[in-house]
Amino acid sequence: MSELARPKSGQKPLLSLRNINMTFGGIKALKNVSFDVLPGEVHCLAGENGSGKSTLIKIVTGVYRPEPGASIDYDGQTYSHMSPVTAQAAGIKVIWQDLALFPEMSVAENIAFQTVLGRWPRFVNYARMRETAIRALARLGVSLDVDLPLKEYPISQRQIVAIARALVGEAKLVFMDEPTASLTQSETDHLLDIVRTLSASGVAVVFVSHRLAEVLDISSRLTVLRDGALVGVYPATGMTQSRITELMTGKTFDHETRARDVSANPAMLEVEKFSRPGLFEDISFTVRRGETLGITGLLGAGRTELALSLFGMLKPRSGTIKIDGKPVRFSSNRDAIAAGVAYLSEDRLSLGLIQPQSIADNLVIASLDRITSGGLLSDDRKRALVARWIADLGIRIGRQGDAVSTLSGGNQQRIAIAKWLATDPKLLILDAPTVGVDVGARAGIFDIIAKLADSGLAIILISDEVPEVYFHADRVLHMAEGRIVNRFTPRDCTLQDIEAAVYA
């Protein structure tokens, strides 16, 4: 390919994979993939969910053994496969999306716990652990109270703790899986600065992210996978988000605003002077039938807290709500569901779905009253309800009884949406519905949202990614410090107008 990026002349890769194949249950997860990472390089591994990114990372880190014929060259050594012990000892580290940290333990313990592991019991030198943690954080230009429990820190600083833990093991190559998925723009900028610091110190970073703007900002090269096969390796210079999307999916996507004038539609939700001091103040707005109202703003703006109050999980101090013109007061989320309000949490992994439970059980859990007969659950009604929504939302599954954790991020999110649609809501609140979802699956989710709005459902779309609300909402509210500070109509403004207000 003319766009193929190759290492600079004479520069030897730190990692070089050749002829990597992997099969699960007769399905080819990786098909003859080759992949290089240079010393100190920030390299993006791009692809939709299910493209083989995680499988490739697990081969490098020794979790999976590739099929015979593979070659792994790392730091001057050649391997037919790695083992987890070999990879760890060689300085290959992974920071997974869930971070794999210990919230109840201190920052120091999270960073340095591996230094006290061994075959035989021994006393823990906590002073040395503190020193190790402080040195690792100092390498990143960060100062934290290492004695505090990790749970006291926000997700952005937990990311830093996970990176510092990798450095304790003298990391030479760090894989970062969706490190910015839960971060605001300012937190993302800080994390990217830390990645640049790692790169400047000689640590190679393989960056996996569905946020294509930051991919272009941080990476020097991109390796693109599609359906387990290598599409190509490309320089980040001159690349565009739309071109990456096309390479990842094999499709092109239109980027036009959807905003419509629905002012003639009857009001479905009316919120007046809604307040809960410390979280949000004096919130007033209306959502009409068939309307998608976008709410954006930085983390801490009060968006999620407002959503939780509308769903009966936080009680406001003052203000009123009307659903379909009738005043309502929610004592719990049960009251909200009974009134026709549904809420999709931003935290799909721990709040949106029960990962070990089956696809079917997750989908029906909010609408058990619809699948009971004579006071008992009806398997026939359950299967029919699940089959209906899987077909309506185009969800790709194996069997209804499979654990929901077996699905891709995009299909998990569709199950989470289907769970609430099965309650037959009047108002659907979507809090960051595309977190951890790749660009192709995002387009599918927004197609679903558009069809739901066209059918008359009132929707609140909450996102800290301004393009999402600009292109997919009819109106946009900008929240900051618990208040609505700006109101936009995408038909009458530009994307840059909203971004300038939000990121000012």
TrEMBL record:
Matching InterPro entries, A to Z?
Answer: AAA+_ATPase, ABC_carbohydrate_import_ATPase, ABC_transporter-like_ATP-bd, ABC_transporter-like_CS, P-loop_NTPase
Highest taxon, organism lineage:
Bacteria
Q: Which CDD domains match?
A: ABC_Carb_Monos_I, ABC_Carb_Monos_II
- Name of the protein described by the UniProt record: Lipase
Q: Name one Pfam family in it.
A: ABC_tran
For this protein, the parts annotated as crossing the membrane are none
ABC transporter domain mapped to chain residues: 15-252, 257-504
**Species assigned in the record:** Phyllobacterium phragmitis
**Per its record, what are the GO molecular function terms?**
ATP binding; ATP hydrolysis activity
Q: Which UniProt keywords apply?
A: ATP-binding, Cell membrane, Membrane, Nucleotide-binding, Repeat, Sugar transport, Translocase, Transport
Q: Which family does it belong to?
A: Belongs to the ABC transporter superfamily.
* Keyword ATP-binding (UniProt): yes
